[in-house]
Design goal:
With 471 residues, the protein is an alpha+beta fold. Helices cover 56% and strands 16% of the residues. Helix 8 (323-340) runs parallel beside helix 9 (359-375). It binds adenosine-5'-diphosphate.
């Protein structure tokens, strides 16, 4: 493998996961096998020392019954019946001189004189001494009789060391396959675990290169975090797709809706430029141009307001707003218009109800709804604004007895620049309800509509109640 690709592999998550797994695997294996080794070693030592202590008690009994001769007789008896003596046995006087010593045949070279210069100190403590060339060790336990005589029994640690050495050899042999298993297992697990991430990366790459948003990440069916990631990723793609379609649609509409007033503007200016135009005609044309330009500016401003509210960029001056006063202020603006159209305008709102809202923006919402209600209600009809408290929400209803909205139009009326065929004869830009929805949602509220064609419409705003503390 070339150097750049090797360093790329080293940077991958799979490589790091493999290393981590390998590290933990080897660490746990070493800790477990080390613990097994220590346990085996201490258990063998405990077993040996128990045997030596038992033997010591036997010799103590023999000495107490018949002195040095009894001890020597016992050693001779064991030698005769077992064929060899297994334990080192020594009797020494109070001044450490060896009175009698039996040394197992295997360590014939052991120099008992080593023990003569050595004060046994606390006789119950174990003494360790090298037997030959420091390779084998003798462990000795002592007992001092009341007459000062010292009895020592020792055993060689060599058989125990043999067992431990074989255990160490076995460990060395199994360590190699364990290392291979560690690396192999780590690489396999990392490869399996990262498959959904690889799929997601491939999907992203294909979206970036082809620009097609239709592709989706396959479900793993495991129900784990990576499946959730794929699910959320697909959801995000759905949303981006919907937003792009919405934006394209809105852009088409804006382009279409701007073309008409711009063409009108141009036509008016062109007519005015005709050489024989009178001063009065010129003034009228300029006034019309200004009116048309104002319409265009209003449309662009509203579109920008909707975008700001939808993206959360709209600055809202939130404060407690009394619903009763808000409704009365809005209705006051439309009293004359309603009267001119012979429309009965009625309101009902408990005085104590308050919401946390941007007062000006909330009034804009009510103005749009009331304007529509009056606009789409024939003379002699009724428009009613009612506010009520409903499970910690203030619900404001704007209902009219107007032309109503067809079921086909109902889901579309919230779209930017949408105007139903029945409303074409009325003034308007088709942006009012889009703005209403965007502002209400920016206030964490909801807006719904129900309508019966020919009977009227009812718009329902639900806004969070202002808490007494905030008030
Ligand atoms: P417009 O400027 O056309 O009124 P809106 O966004 O306010 O734009 O409304 C979108 C469409 O919803 C209107 O064109 C109309 O068809 C329908 N609409 C809104 N309010 C009412 C209502 N109270 N009664 C009947 N139709 C309505």
């Amino acid at each position: 493998m070339s150097l750049p690709s090797l360093s790329r592999v080293r940077k991958t998550l799979g490589f790091r996961l493999t290393l981590w797994y390998f590290g933990f695997f080897i660490l746990s294996v070493v800790v477990l096998l080390g613990a097994a080794y220590v346990l085996l070693s201490t258990s063998l030592q405990h077993h040996d020392r128990q045997a030596a202590q038992l033997k010591l008690q036997e010799y103590v009994g023999a000495y107490q019954q018949g002195g040095i001769e009894a001890v020597e007789r016992k050693v001779a008896f064991e030698k005769e019946h077992i064929g060899k003596i297994l334990f080192f046995v020594r009797l020494a006087s109070a001044d450490h001189k060896t009175l009698s010593a039996s040394i197992p045949h295997k360590w014939a070279s052991f120099d008992v004189a080593q023990l003569e210069g050595r004060n046994a100190g606390d006789p119950s403590q174990w003494i360790t001494l090298p037997v030959k060339d420091d390779e084998e060790v003798l462990e000795i336990i002592s007992f001092r009789f009341p007459d000062g005589t010292l009895l020592q029994v020792g055993l060689n640690t060599d058989p125990r060391e043999d067992v431990l050495e074989r255990f160490r050899d076995t460990l060395a042999v199994i360590l190699v396959p364990l290392l291979v298993m560690g690396v192999g297992g780590g690489a396999f697990l990392a490869f399996r675990a990262l498959r959904p991430v690889r799929d997601l990366t491939a999907l992203l790459r294909s979206i970036i290169t082809t620009g097609k948003l239709e592709a989706r990440a396959p479900g793993t069916g495991t129900g784990d975090e990576l499946e959730e990631l794929s699910f959320l990723f697909n959801n995000m793609l759905d949303r981006i797709g919907a937003l792009i379609t919405g934006m394209r649609h809105a852009l088409d509409n804006v382009a279409h809706d701007l073309r008409t007033p711009m063409t009108r503007l141009r036509g008016m200016a062109e007519m005015a430029l005709r050489a024989d135009a009178q001063r009065e005609v010129l003034r009228d044309a300029l006034a019309n141009c200004i009116e048309e330009a104002d319409r265009i500016v209003a449309m662009v401003n509203t579109l920008m307001d909707i975008s700001e509210a939808e993206t959360g960029a709209m600055k809202l001056e939130l404060q407690p707003v009394n619903v009763h006063a808000l409704i009365e202020r809005t209705v006051e603006l439309y009293r004359d218009v309603a009267e001119d159209k012979a429309i009965t305008l009625s309101t009902f709102a408990p005085e104590e109800l308050s919401i946390t809202a941007d007062c000006a923006r909330m009034q804009q919402v009510l103005v749009n709804l009331l304007d529509n209600a009056i606009k789409y209600t024939p003379p002699g009809g009724r428009v009613e604004i009612v506010a009520a408290l409903h499970t910690q929400q203030v619900v404001i209803t704007v209902a009219d007895t107007g032309i109503g909205i067809t079921p086909e139009d109902l889901p579309k009326i919230w779209e930017r620049l949408y105007r139903s065929d029945t409303s074409r004869s009325q003034r308007g830009m088709g942006l009012g309800l889009s703005l209403v929805k965007a502002i209400v949602q920016a206030h964490q509220g909801t807006v719904e509509v129900s309508s019966t064609p020919g009977a009227g419409s009812r718009f329902l705003l639900a806004l969070p109640l202002c808490s007494p503390a905030a008030r």
